[in-house]
Design goal:
Blueprint: E1 23-37, E2 42-48, E3 54-66, E4 81-87, E5 92-93, E6 99-100, H1 101-104, E7 112-120, E8 125-132, E9 139-152
Antiparallel strand pairs: 1-9, 2-8, 3-7, 3-9, 4-5, 4-6, 4-8
Length: 154
């Protein structure tokens, strides 16, 4: 009988890249909630980027429900709601047309990772327009913008 030799492998996580001199990055989440978006209705909202730091958007998640109904894993809601995000600091929209939320926002376990991060300047406003294209359901939608605050100092 051949003996099996097992080696214990040590996992060494990759080293994080050091920020440039004069810069510090902290994990941060901006959240915006939309309650009771009626069938064929729209909702508007804004997030004000805080004055202390720029914000680098890296990932997107959402949690949605229908009229506050309880959910379990098998009844997770994929809202029939489109979204347009506008960076009012630059006047640029993030999408050429409103996109369905499930197409671009993951859930809390598996966020959507942006292929290129999006920077929002300190004090900028970020506006959101949601449109419910469901004929019957009233949705509550909670969006999370996950990323890093970028602090600069001299």
């Amino acid at each position: 009988m051949a003996s099996v030799v097992m080696r214990q492998m040590k996992f060494t996580p990759p080293a994080a890249a050091a920020p440039p001199p004069g810069q510090r990055r902290d994990f941060f989440v901006y959240d915006i909630d939309f309650a009771g978006i009626a069938p064929n209705g729209t909702a508007n909202g804004q997030i004000q980027i805080q004055a202390d730091a720029d914000f680098e958007l890296q990932q997107l998640t959402h949690f949605s429900d229908i009229a506050l109904a309880a959910q379990v894993e098998s009844t997770r809601v994929l809202p029939l709601v489109t979204l347009q995000i506008t960076d009012t600091g630059t006047g640029r929209q993030m999408f050429n047309a409103p996109v369905p939320i499930p197409a671009l926002f993951g859930d809390g376990r598996i966020p959507f990772i942006l292929p290129t991060t999006k920077m929002f300047s300190r004090n900028a406003s970020v506006s959101f327009v949601l449109s419910n294209y469901d004929a019957a359901a009233t949705y509550n939608v909670r969006l999370q913008l996950i990323g890093a605050k970028i602090f600069t100092y001299s």
